Amino acid sequence: MDVLNGFAAADFDFTFLEEGFSARDIMEQKINESLLSDDKDAFYVADLGDVLKKHLRWCRALPRVTPFYAVKCNDSRAIVMTLASLGAGFDCASKTEIQLVQSLGVEAGRIIYANPCKQVSQIKYAASHEVQMMTFDSEVELMKVARCHHNAKLVLRIATDDSKAKCRLSVKFGASLKTSRELLERAKELGLDIIGVSFHVGSGCTDPETYTQAISDARCVFDMGAELGFNMTLLDIGGGFPGSEDAKLKFEEIAAVINPALEKYFPSDRGVRVIAEPGRYYVASAYTLAVNIIAKKVIKKEQSGLDADEDDSTLMYYVNDGVYGSFNCIFYDHAHVLPTLHKKPKPDEHLFSCSIWGPTCDGLDRIVEQCVLPDLQLGDWLLFDNMGAYTVAASSTFNGFQKPDIHYVMSRAAWQRLQQICAQGLPDALEEQCSTNATSCGRESSLEIPAKSCSTRVL
Ligand SMILES: Cc1ncc(COP(=O)(O)O)c(C=O)c1O
């Protein structure tokens, strides 16, 4: 496949970065362009080279584990296209996500329908589109699948102790070990094929030992399955991996716990294929959001009945994206965000206690309750890093505010690397560390990308 043609014909705004230019330069360029006009809408710059870097890092740290990217985290076509080119698989939660991934030419075997509670019509859709791998955690789900999808390859989702994760999932999903046995017995009666076990330690995991416990629990369920005559060959270790460098627990620290646990409970020579469903890991750090100050209020101390000293005022900044847009992550993803300044303050510049608010008429629409910033003016820009995960995917246009445009970039060097991986697989240095499982590090790339108009430019 010619990735270059695929991207050049894609329907998103994409710019190649020549040597010496970075995503930050594009951001700067867009901001400079905005100085000449009134158009100061919020926008993203997303570096697809960062996604590539993450993939190489994944393959190095977890050579046995094939990533199936969790589309729900950021369903932008450019992201899915990049990961499809790298040979990743996909975790889809719905018919629409399956449609998106398949529209890019990804074969059904590279998709896991990883939603344990599915609408019947969507199970039928998966069946008619040859998507066979799917998760379940209840008897009712087994019965639906028995009725609608005779070729399903079922993966039993087990609960984990996700009490230390940022976003807990096991309150809603996952069977206990006791229930797992009952479900396996029921599946046997229904003549269904159970191929493996999945779990999710919770998004934003802070305790790597949760993976060890979950892998050990999965081993128990494999053993129960074997007793009942199932040939289980798939372990899905879910998501939970950090997406930015400011996370307390580093990706490599988690990998250092997972690898020995896999070796202990699922030794590589036993033929169990291991996959994962990383979302945040792949996309968080690739996206930077620029928002513009559209209104401002100065709250003087005297208003609160104290001494009136200008320097003691607090400032309220109103910007053009908020919690109903990209910053929905504050509510849904328990995110804490802080801006960086586009214009560097002078060394002696006075700093004020500030709050930052979104553009809607809702009093809930507050992005930052308290931070320290200089006296900024209308039209100034604030930047937010690490905004790729659970942001654009769940944002709305409440109050009529449109979602920010996304400008994708990739360096020429990253581009060439992507093409090379697409054509020849991973470079030798990485392959030496990769397992013998050919799908693990993304060598099954066979993506056809549809021709559409684009605005590809070279800096
Ligand atoms: C089933 C499933 N898999 C994977 C993910 C992705 O998790 P993360 O972004 O923590 O990697 C989620 C997130 O909610 C999920 O529900």
From TrEMBL:
Gene3D superfamilies: Alanine racemase, Lyase, Ornithine Decarboxylase, Chain A, domain 1
Pathway annotation: Amine and polyamine biosynthesis; putrescine biosynthesis via L-ornithine pathway; putrescine from L-ornithine: step 1/1
GO molecular function annotation: ornithine decarboxylase activity
Domain Orn/DAP/Arg decarboxylase 2 N-terminal intervals: 48-284
Domain Orn/DAP/Arg decarboxylase 2 C-terminal: 43-388
EC number(s) from the headed UniProt entry: 4.1.1.17
Cofactors required: pyridoxal 5'-phosphate
Residue numbers annotated as active site: C361 (proton donor)
Record keywords: Decarboxylase, Lyase, Phosphoprotein, Polyamine biosynthesis, Pyridoxal phosphate
A Gene Ontology biological process term: eye photoreceptor cell development
Family: Belongs to the Orn/Lys/Arg decarboxylase class-II family.
Protein name as it appears in the record: ornithine decarboxylase
Protein species of origin: Paramormyrops kingsleyae
Classification lineage: Eukaryota, Metazoa, Chordata, Craniata, Vertebrata
